[in-house]
Write a structure and sequence with these properties.
273 residues, alpha/beta, Nucleotidyltransferase, domain 5, 5-stranded mixed sheet, 10 helices, 49% helix, elongated
Amino acid sequence: MEQATSGEQDPKTRARVLEKSGRLLREGGRDSVSCYRLIEAEKTSFPVQLMCSMLGVSRSGYYGWRDRSSSARSRADAALTERIGEIHERSRHTYGSPRVHAELRAIGIRCGRKRVERLMRQAGLRGCMRGRRRATTRRDGRSAVAEDLVKRNFAATKMDKIWVADITYVATREGFLYLAFVLDAHSRRIVGWAMESHLRAELVVDALRMAVWRRKPAPGLVHHSDRGVQYTSLCFGERLKEVGITPSMGRTGSALDNAMAESFVSTLKTRQR
């Protein structure tokens, strides 16, 4: 209140408010919303009470408009975060904010790059980092990519003949978490899973470890996945060898080559909504 009273007694302050209000209101007309927008833009420079008085609007009206605008922004951010998550997942969790922003613009969604960066940071979504960091996701140049032994035929005569695996994201109150799962092709049941805030190879290793512990499969089991860096990593390949499971991998960019896993992800997303 002292700041507002002082401002009202200062002719220079009143003149600056009038100058600002005259310029901004000419752009949008002298309606209440234009006045509220001016007050919001200049609230760090001038007392709110003074600006409301000079513009002929009430403080309660301004604060009500501000709260409604804040709720609308929150809803818009939530909707945009969902679209960002979908794009990030389709990229196999490799796109950073610049690529995600470009994809959004390509489908007609206009938003700022900094806003995309902020929402991705809040949701815990990160692009694939280049360089020598995270050796757990380094590919084995000798035998990184396995042959596709399934060839889109997911029909298994009994359990523990074919396991299919993939990674997706799950929205939580704390942001997005990554879910790695192992699905039995015969029973169509999840036999192993792991959830973390990162995409390092131990995520899929932990999911495999749970599946092996629960099912104790006999020799001859095929583990089918895509060619993501987690599944082609040294530590995951070594773990498969240790437990006697044969790796199989679909082609890069082909959803049909891992259609059963994609179907589970689609069902999961539908139930989340």
